[in-house]
Amino acid sequence: MATARKLSKTVADNVRAVARDRGITIAMIINETGIPERTFKRRMTGLSAWTTDEINLVGKVLHLDEDATADLMRPKRASGVAT
């Protein structure tokens, strides 16, 4: 259970970082993915786990290719490089 929570937090942290770097708001992600706001917020706070479909949808909104979308699930070092 702790592993799933840790993965959800990792994805949320990475989504925030990439969105910030690209000037994309959370509201834009919610609108463009079609993920209900309540569901999205639960994912972003770690209260429920991300699905692979959701991660792929978010990756598209963030203009990430498949490899970069997979990187959303990898912890980042302080330098921002995937470990």
Which helices and strands appear, and what pairs or packs with what?
Elements: H1 2-22, H2 26-33, H3 37-44, H4 52-61, H5 66-71
Describe this structure in words.
The chain is mainly alpha-helical. The chain has one domain (2-71): Orthogonal Bundle (434 Repressor (Amino-terminal Domain)), CATH 1.10.260.40. Helices cover 64% and strands 0% of the residues. It contains 5 helices and no strands. It has helices at residues 2-22, 26-33, 37-44, 52-61, 66-71. The longest helix is centred in the first third of the chain and has 21 residues, at 2-22. The two termini are 22 Å apart. The model has no long low-confidence stretch (mean pLDDT 89).
> What is the percentage of strand-forming residues?
under 5%
- The count of domains is 1
Looking at the overall shape, the CATH architecture is: Orthogonal Bundle
Query: How would you name the CATH homologous superfamily?
Result: lambda repressor-like DNA-binding domains
| SS class | mainly alpha
Mean pLDDT: 89
**Poorly predicted residue ranges:** none
Morphology call:
globular
Radius of gyration: 12 Å
Tally of helical segments: 5
Kindly state the number of beta strands: 0
The CATH first-level class comes to: Mainly Alpha
The H/E string reads: HHHHH
The CATH topology = 434 Repressor (Amino-terminal Domain)
Main sheet?
Answer: none
Fraction of residues in helix: 55-70%
N/C terminus separation: 22 Å
Core attributes:
83 residues; mainly alpha; 434 Repressor (Amino-terminal Domain); 64% helix
